[in-house]
Amino acid sequence: MYSLLAPAKVNLVLEVGGLRTDGYHEIATIFQSIALFDVVTVVPAAGAGAGAGEITGAPSQGIEVVVRKGEAPAGRDNLVWRAAALLAEKIGLEHPAVTIILDKEVPAAAGLGGGSADAAAALRLLGQLWQVEDPAVLQETAQAVGADVSFFLSGYGAALGRGRGEKLLRLDLPVLWLVLANPGRQCSTKEVYGLFEAARQTKEHNGEQKGELAVVEAGKESAGSSGELPAPGRQCSRFLTALAEGGVAEAASFLYNDLAGPAGQISPEINRLLAALKAGGALGAEVSGSGATVFALTGGSKEARRLAGEVAGIAAWTWWGPTLAQAHPNLG
Q1: Is 103 a known active-site residue?
Q2: pTM for this one?
Q3: Active-site entry in 38, 104, 118, 148
């Protein structure tokens, strides 16, 4: 039996461009892992990679996904099942026999990447179990499973993401103290993007907006970044520069999400939570991903705990805690 923590994320910045030929939108985002975790456990069948004395109990044949705690789709409707099936197919494993158990703390369909994080953790565990020696195999599988899975597989605490979110540049950001609040209503990613696209096309038709993301000067390195990647979106660059030059208090003014408006149309409670967080003294607040979770930047742990208590009465779920400098060891 093998287990791994699967951390959630927030999008400190999320810029969305036009539709790509593959049906996805081009994005520029700053992913940030947080200290809120699901636990993913893989139980192999006897003789399917478990060592002597290992706890077993998986089916003799097939992939089974069990949600032991929390809410998430079970079986083939879960991204974890898709990840396991795709990996087995990619490595030529004809008769995989494994049970994957999910103990969830991250709300489903909440803009926190819980399903993608679980899928990435499952890929890591199955890679060990099935002796996948080439990290590229796991990375290719992650990209095929979902847009956010590559980030969670990377092990980065924070990263700039481009393309669908699969092109990653590690960022070295300071620890931030956050408050998360969810109104108790799920936001369909497909529906949120649909509203965004309808509004984008209307603006484009009226000459108000181009389909491409605005980017900073090509080749200019962003504050806090290392490595090479196509230029970040303009809003990403503004946030990173503000954080490097003025700290958290200044950067909080540059939190940004192009999907906040569409998410607020689906769940008006989002706007109420954002207003409450700001009125309660948050340095800044924004929607994460496609919602419905909102998050606030605070000045430290005491402020985060106080603010979480203040908004608990109008939120279905709250959490407060730090961001992560590293989610888990890198694949190398």
Answers
A1: no
A2: 0.88
A3: 148
